[in-house]
Amino acid sequence: MGSLFRSEEMTLCQLFLQSEAAYACVSELGELGLVQFRDLNPDVNVFQRKFVNEVRRCDEMERKLRYLEKEIKKDGIPMLDTGESPEAPQPREMIDLEATFEKLENELREVNQNAEALKRNFLELTELKHILRKTQVFFDEMADNQNEDEQAQLLGEEGVRASQPGQNLKLG
User: Fold this and answer.
1) What global pTM score does this model have?
2) How many whole angstroms separate alpha carbon 8 and alpha carbon 141?
3) Distance of alpha carbon 172 from its chain centroid, rounded?
4) What's the rounded Cα separation, in Å, for the pair 64 and 102?
5) How far apart are CA 121 and CA 17, in angstroms?
């Protein structure tokens, strides 16, 4: 693969391609990395060009791939990097790639939403469990105090003190 340095010798060429062969020719030239394209219609608005829809589709697929890559790295899943650039897909393969990327993105977003919902539910249930434990301790203490009060009423103050562990009960 060559490089495009200022000092490197270059030749200006103009290519005329048939519409049907343009994609294949440009993708081959791009994979070689030995060409630089010049815009012969700089005054034409970007949105008025023939290929603007294809560029948008490619940008959208690239965005989906970046999202998938970010999620893969976030989960620590190892990815194989061969260091090679894959060949440009044919136009009919682009439709399948778009559908696959769309499906993967939607499934991953759904999984992330479900994981967030489960996390929220877990935290809420954990909080409720702690509240129930604290209220149980409170009610247990209240029941103990109530039992002591009932004993005091039945036995009187001396009877409660006498029934304490380690003391003898006086009847009399």
Assistant:
1) 0.63
2) 89
3) 79
4) 7
5) 60
Contacting residues for 3 by C-beta, under 8 A, at least 6 apart: 33
Q: DSSP string covering 73-116, please? A: HHTT------SPPPPPPPHHHHHHHHHHHHHHHHHHHHHHHHHH
- Note whether 144 and 153 are within 8 A (CB): no
Residues 57, 91 contacting (CB under 8 angstroms): no
CA distances 153 to 56, 144, 159, 160, 171, Å, are: 86, 14, 9, 9, 16
For each successive 10 residues of the chain (172 residues), what is the average pLDDT?
Answer: 65 86 85 81 83 87 94 91 82 90 96 96 97 93 82 63 53 47
CA distance 69 to 56: 20
* Alpha helices (H) along the chain: 19-32, 52-74, 91-162
Q: Is 156 left (phi over 0), alpha (psi -120 to 50) or beta?
A: left
